[in-house]
Amino acid sequence: MRRAAVLCSLLSLCTGLAGAAEATDNLPALSGADARVALEQIRPQAERGNADAQYALGNAYASGNGVRQSHGEAVSWFLKAAAQGHTDAQISLGKAYQFGEGVAQSDAEAFRWFLKAAEAGNADAQLIVGRAYAIGFSVKRSEVEAAAWTRKAAESGLGTAQVNYATMLAQGRGVKRDLEESSRWMHLAADQDNVSALHMLGLMHTQGYGEKQDLIAAANYFRRAADLGHVPSMNALGLAYCHGRGVPQDYAQAATLFRKAADTGSAEGQRNLGYLYYTGQGVIQNPQEALFWTRKAADQGDAEALDGLGHFYETGLGIDPDRVEALKWYALAALKGRKRAMPSRDRLVAQLKPDEISEAQRRAQVWLDTHQAR
Fold it and tell me: Measured between alpha carbons, how far is 138 from 161 in angstroms, rounded to an integer?
């Protein structure tokens, strides 16, 4: 289980760093219908020892772009480029060893190639190595080493690294806690339109943490990130419109933002949109729509939505009342940590018959078995 969590953590950094076919200044682009033609031009250069061409050819085999996909062939070309010091190829090899694609899986070999690229100054690799030290991936966990490598990547201008290093400074992980310096790094990332940085600055201005509390500035940061497609910022800005925090209260604007977030699959957006349909704020009140969106959020395990479904079934809002079903949802919400659901659960337990309680427990277990298997 721990190794799976580590792989997932590193995957968030590795995905996209090594898998896409990228053109270099002197090579044709490997994209679209012309990929096969481009490969015919690139292959001779790769065979003559051009490291960029070798890397591009490796990417083509890894993705199946213009050729039949072969991770083994991809690794052979990445090795040739990596031997010449091509750091992106070294990252690709690290990824191949990490996931056992074309080679025997080896965390140690993965880290060796990531470190080789990082030591050569590749910012993406430095960020990966920093994360490896933070979580103890094939190396002894060290917050100090994690911070040091993350700072190297941040100094190269990598926005994600700047956000990570700012967070380390704010929390004092591996470095001395320094909120002013943390803010400086966060602003550097935000200046590159890094959506995580924009969102964090919105939170910091909302809470007055590391920045002066300024709800107008917070809303502006959330808006910038939301306009770039950042879903948590859509929800945050929607809530700002609901409560009139830094913007005029406007439930219609909130509903628009929540719908955009909900359409991406955001449980928070679905739950918030369901609540507006429940109250009729910013939209025409519609119990069936409220139930629809609340259920979608609940299906993702959202505790507030699970609690909401209990209320719907208990009161018969948008659906026939069913206290056994209501107890099921209240119990699931409480299990997920929703304290406000506990009194409702306990009240129904006191009112229902033993066989009804058993049936609610059975239904809850079926739901858990189904959703935990996803």
Answer: 21
